[in-house]
Every structure is written in structure tokens, then in C-alpha cells.
Design goal:
It is a single chain. The chain is mainly beta and 141 residues long. The chain has one domain: 3-layer Sandwich (Rieske Iron-sulfur Protein). The chain has one helix and twelve strands; from the N terminus they run ββββββββββββα. The strands form four sheets. The protein has a four-stranded antiparallel β-sheet, with no helix packed on it. A three-stranded antiparallel β-sheet has the order 1-12-11, with no helix packed on it. The protein has a three-stranded antiparallel β-sheet with strand order 7-8-9, with no helix packed on it. It starts with 9 loop residues before the first strand and ends with a helix.
Length: 141
């Protein structure tokens, strides 16, 4: 049983092979039922120095699922993507908008495992009236 103070469990979703993402670009994938933008940042001078990041694909400014098509780079050493529509930049590690601190998009854990890109999908439980043992556990914690 999960207690309210325990960290949430999560599972990893296979997205694609690393080689299917052109270095320093992004792709869109479904994680659960959410569109997620996955980015591969690579130092083209140093082979094997790839990093992957994942944020929600929905751009709250243009109200379109387009962030995976944005331009990647960095601002002050922080990896970011600029929306292809209105050019607001989002931090790839946190999902925070770098141009408007009141706006953010979801950020997901991402990793490369044996040449495969995976994104972590949180597992949540819906609390409902019929789930009395779980409800009593949450209220007692």
C-alpha cells in the first residue's frame, strides 16, 4: 500500500531509439495519454555525450502542441527550447518559462537505456468513496 508521505512510484515508457532523434532537435510522443516533447541535446564534437529531456508538448501561449518543433539551445547555461510560434523559452529541466515566471509546462524524467530513450510516467491513484482502506490511510498520515 502507498502512504501519503511515500514518494510516488513511476514507470518508464519507451519512446524510441536515440538514433531516431536528430541531435539538438525534439520529437513528440505519447506518454499515457499526454503529448510529451522529447529533446536530444548532443555535443557534436564529443560522441556519446547525449542528454535527453522531456517536457509537455503544449505551448500555453499559442495554445498548440508544438514545443517539440522548437529551437533548442541554452540560456545562461540552462538547456531550453524556444516555442516555434511566439518564441517563449522553456527550461528543459524544470518546464519553467524563462520569459514569464508565472507560466510553466510539465517536466518529465528522461533517460537513455541501452540506446533507447525512455520517459518516466508518474503512477497516480484516484481516491474515491469506494476505496475506504486507502482513504483512511491517507487521512491518518
Amino acid at each position: 500500500m502507498i502512504k501519503a508521505n511515500e514518494p510516488s512510484r513511476a514507470e518508464w515508457t519507451v519512446v524510441c531509439a536515440l538514433d531516431e532523434i536528430v541531435p539538438n532537435t525534439g520529437v513528440c510522443c505519447l506518454v499515457g495519454q499526454k503529448q510529451v516533447a522529447v529533446f536530444r541535446l548532443s555535443d557534436l564534437q564529443a560522441e556519446g555525450n547525449d542528454r535527453v529531456y522531456a517536457i509537455g508538448n503544449y505551448d500555453p501561449f499559442s495554445r498548440a502542441n508544438v514545443l517539440s518543433r522548437g529551437i533548442v539551445g541554452d540560456r545562461g547555461g540552462r538547456p531550453k527550447v524556444a516555442s516555434p510560434i511566439f518564441k517563449q523559452s522553456f527550461d528543459l529541466e524544470t518546464g519553467a518559462c524563462m520569459d514569464d515566471e508565472t507560466v510553466s509546462v510539465p517536466a518529465y524524467e528522461a533517460r537513455i537505456s541501452d540506446g533507447i530513450v525512455e520517459v518516466q510516467e508518474p503512477i497516480t491513484r484516484t481516491l474515491r468513496a469506494g476505496n475506504t482502506p486507502l482513504l483512511s490511510e491517507v487521512h491518518s498520515a
